[in-house]
Amino acid sequence: MSANDPGRPHSSIEPGAWLAVLLYALGVLAVFMPYYLLDGIRIGGFQLRIGKYSDLAAFLSGVSGFFLSLATFILVYRTYRSQRVEINESRKLELRQRIEDIFFRLLDAHRQNLHEIEEGQYSKRRVFALIREEFKRVHDAVMEELSAVPEGELPYWKRVELAFLLVYYGAGPISSRYHERIFSPEERRIIDPVLRHHEQANVLNGHQTQLAHYMDHFFNTIKYIDKKEDMLAPGEHADYVRLLASQLSPHELAIIALFSITRAAGEWQHTDLLIRNGFLRRLPPGTMHYLRWNTILPGAEIKWSLT
Question: Is 294 buried (19+), middle (13-18) or exposed (0-12) by CB count in 10 A?
Fold first, then answer.
């Protein structure tokens, strides 16, 4: 049976500790050794006389004392280092446990935020499906309105942003106050025809009230686990990302990605958190297929997306 065989009992005492025990045992024996019994003993042609070797004994005592002191220092230092490593490991474990606890509380809050989202007869994830349908209609209308405008004058992602902002803030008297503050006069000229159409149809009610807190909390959760990556054990960061991503439906993830390119996102606009942590790679093929995802989100490298 090998020394590493799990069936063989292992000593919990390190070799250094055994050495210390042996050295101190020899020291104790040396104190009580009946040296007079050794007087006159012949070893070969040499006869031992204890009285003649007192100086030698003093010399050997000094030398052995030095080595014993050195051994004591080494053992004390090894103990200090071992305790320091254990304390550091204990602190790291405590920190990882604290991070885990905070993450799961953030995850619970994310689920609660989702449960509180309601829009008429729609609730929870169905609201995101509704937003996706509204965005498709507004997107097509904005693109048609801008069909004669070269992309050099108005980039594609800006057109998508205009469409999403119209869905986010909605159309109507209350929403118009946001439009005046958010859109430039040039942008207002572009979106006014689209707004008039949807105001008449009364189908664009806006989702800012429902989504603002949800989005801010979600991005703060990603930021938290992203900042803690260096403090986690290998693989833990990826596990947290997978766990958070698993809470999202394809509709949620797509709307979150669109939100991140707009000025409505505030500090999260154009953040690379989604790309760096691999969230966008989880978009199922064909999600909102009419969008040029890799143009909207440079670096996402969504292979199935339009270029």
Answer: middle
C-alpha–C-alpha distance, residues 199 and 179, integer Å: 14
Element (H, E) at 22: helix 15-32
Q: 266: number of CA atoms within 13 Å, CB side?
A: 9
pLDDT tens digits, 60-91 = 566 567 666 777 787 788 788 888 888 888 99
d(CA 307, CA 54): 95
Paired tokens of 54: 């007192």
Distance CA 292, CA 160 (A): 10
What gap in Å lies between CA 53 and CA 192, rounded to an integer? 112
Give the SS3 label for residue 305: coil
Question: What SS3 state is found at 153?
Answer: coil
d(CA 226, CA 220): 10
DSSP lists the bridge partners of residue 47 as 42
For 115-135, what is each residue's pLDDT tens digit? Answer: 999 877 778 889 999 999 999
Q: How far apart are CA 209 and CA 168, in angstroms?
A: 9
CB 127, CB 113: distance < 8 Å: no
Q: Are 157 and 261 in contact (CB under 8 A)?
A: yes
C-alpha span between 294 and 307 (Å, rounded): 6
